[in-house]
Amino acid sequence: DAPALAKAHVGISLSNATEIAIQSAQIVLLNGHLERLPQALGITRGTVVTIKQNLFWAFFYNSLAIPIAAVGLLNPMIAALSMAFSDVIVVGNSIRLKYR
Q: Which one of 7-16, 32-41, 78-87 scores highest in mean pLDDT?
């Protein structure tokens, strides 16, 4: 199993498999039941969507705020506060994953 798991795009193993199979897998189903696999795939899809949202927000903020700050139209204190606010948005968006 281990060579196939290592070669696969995403290797999934059960927790009661051999140690080498568990180490070769990217996902280990801890309860040993395959019926949780759709839930695991849903979590990964939600995670990818959240990563893309966070990257979009960071790119949008930086592409807008950095030029404004560079030409001196944005007070440094306000720039720092808005950067902190941007970080809070990204972290808050990521925390939503826990409650899905």
A: 78-87
Q: What is the DSSP letter of 29?
A: E
- pTM of the entire predicted model: 0.71
Q: Say whether 9 sits in a helix, a strand or coil.
A: coil
User: How many angstroms separate the CA atoms of 53 and 46, rounded?
Assistant: 10
**Which of 81, 17, 93, 28 shows the shortest CA–CA distance to 55?**
93
Where residue 50 falls (left for φ over 0; alpha for ψ -120 to 50; beta otherwise) is alpha
Q: Got the DSSP string for 47-63?
A: HHHHHHHHHHHHHHHHH
